[in-house]
Design brief:
The structure holds two protein chains of two kinds. Chain A has no helices and eleven strands. By secondary structure, chain A is mainly beta. In chain A, the strands form two sheets. In chain A, strands 2, 4, 5, 6, 9, 10 and 11 form a seven-stranded mixed beta sheet that branches. In chain A, strands 1-3-8-7 form a four-stranded antiparallel beta sheet, with no helix packed on it. The mean pLDDT of chain A is about 90. Chain B is mostly beta strands. Chain B is about 0% helix and about 55% strand. Chain B has strands at about 5, 10-15, 20-25, 30-40, 45-50, 55, 60-65, 70-75, 85-95, 95-100, 105-109. Chain B is globular. The relative contact order of chain B is 0.34. Classes of the chains: A mainly beta, B mainly beta. At the A-B interface, strand 4, strand 5, strand 9 and strand 10 of A face strand 4, strand 5, strand 9 and strand 10 of B.
Amino acid sequence: DAGITQSPRYKITETGRQVTLMCHQTWSHSYMFWYRQDLGHGLRLIYYSAAADITDKGEVPDGYVVSRSKTENFPLTLESATRSQTSVYFCASSVSSSNQPQHFGDGTRLSIL
Amino acid sequence: RKEVEQDPGPFNVPEGATVAFNCTYSNSASQSFFWYRQDCRKEPKLLMSVYSSGNEDGRFTAQLNRASQYISLLIRDSKLSDSATYLCVVILRFQKLVFGTGTRLLVSP
């Protein structure tokens, strides 16, 4: 029962580089989400997806790109990483109902030097 | 005003104590409410949903007050393992969750 997995767990990269964070879920949940968590801000939604090929912006989408070609995968790409994108990134998924909670992956700790 | 506000704490309590946290939300159209628990920057984990009539799960009781726009979490007989950050989560509209910044609880022997 893998649930939802993120990779890599830790990543260090340099400013200007492209980096992709992977998220995979085995529950066939329709909805998937990307959050970042920073001290003093709590979790902030970057992008979400209601189904394959359907994505939408969250609260802080600038500098990020997502895709959802398959229901189970929801990669997040930083096209040109900046220091301000140093954060802990969490992927989450949920069933289709708006009243259902989300289940989170272990997180990716990303440092941009 | 933040959409969801929590007292950051920390709340320091001895084992066996009862402790309560509140969380206020600003949007009266908020649909659903949850408490999550997060340990040391690990992933948030669902603790319990919050229902209009109030609900209990073992030592944990959650309540919703729509008139005053807050939810609460009561923990009875605190354990050392309850030490964590408790996140209040509000669904404002279809699948848009807003997280509070969390309340830190420290339970000491």
